[in-house]
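#struct-pred
JK: can someone run the complex with 2-acetamido-2-deoxy-beta-D-glucopyranose? inputs below
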Amino acid sequence: MQTPFSTVLSAVATTIAMIATAARSGRPMSNGAAVSKLITNGITISSSGNCTDRNNPNCTSLEGVLSGTIDTIIALKGYSGCGSLVITGGTETGHDNCPDKTHWNGYKLDVRHAPCLDNYICRTSTSTCVRSDGFPCWTIGGVDGLYCDEGSHWDIVFR
Ligand SMILES: *[C@@H]1O[C@H](CO)[C@@H](O)[C@H](O)[C@H]1NC(C)=O
Ligand SMILES: *[C@@H]1O[C@H](CO)[C@@H](O)[C@H](O)[C@H]1NC(C)=O
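RT: done, structure tokens with the ligand placed:
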């Protein structure tokens, strides 16, 4: 029996997507390792509850965040020229309603608005869309990801 060409193509596409994802997302990090790498690079973490328990939605945890996500936000800070950035959401519970590249799985961070970051996203935006929950989103040149403005902060998928 012959394998239909479309099946081959789709298998190839899936493999390429898996390689790309693996390369970008990296490996899960501990909260301590992620925080110290971020602080070294001028990025701080804020939690409304002043805590890091990922099972409490009032905390900001980076337990299990992917190393590619951490590398990418450090690159974003560099490209944007911001002197500092503040992460307000990480891998803690209470964020996600989509099944795949979620906060809990280490792909997403919430980042506080700052003029330098907002200007950078505006200046380099390459496309816009509206997410199903109504928030406006942008892709930008330079740093891969989807940047959604949830009002009080950016919700960013690093993909
Ligand atoms: C957060 O916790 C740290 C360490 O326990 C403490 O020093 C700091 O004052 C706390 N901040 C707030 C806003 O509660
Ligand atoms: C989160 O904070 C709210 C408001 O302060 C509080 O009512 C709630 O009990 C907290 N939740 C947890 C799990 O600590």
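RT: quick notes.
Residues 56, 58 surround 2-acetamido-2-deoxy-beta-D-glucopyranose (ligand 2) (CB under 6 Å).
Residues 84 and 99 are 31 Å apart (CA to CA).
JK: thanks, will look after standup
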